[in-house]
Amino acid sequence: MMKPIVLLVDDEAPFVETMTKRLSKRDLKIITAFSGEEALESCSGFKKIPCRL
C-alpha cells in the first residue's frame, strides 16, 4: 500500500521542520514547500492528486 502524501506549506522554516518530523512518525510521506509557487511546482509531477484540506 502506498503511503499517504502530505504537502506541508508554510513560510516559516522552523514550523515546517517541526511538523515534518512529527508527521513522519505517522508513516506519511511529507513534501515541503515554503511558498505557494513552490507548492505548485512540487505537485506538478503528480497525475492525480486526491486532496483533503
Descriptors for this entry?
53 residues; alpha+beta
Q: How would you sum up this structure, described in words?
A:
It is a single chain. With 53 residues, this protein is an alpha+beta fold. The chain is built from two helices and two strands. Strands 1-2 form a two-stranded parallel ribbon. The longest helix is centred in the middle third of the chain and has 12 residues, at 13-24. It starts with a strand and ends in a 10-residue tail after the last helix.
Task: Please give the radius of gyration in angstroms.
Answer: 11 Å
Strand content: 15-25%
Tally of helical segments = 2
Percent of residues in helices: 25-40%
Short summary:
With 53 residues, the chain is α+β, with helices and mostly antiparallel strands.
Which helices and strands appear, and what pairs or packs with what?
Elements: E1 5-9, H1 13-24, E2 29-33, H2 36-43
Parallel strand pairs: 1-2
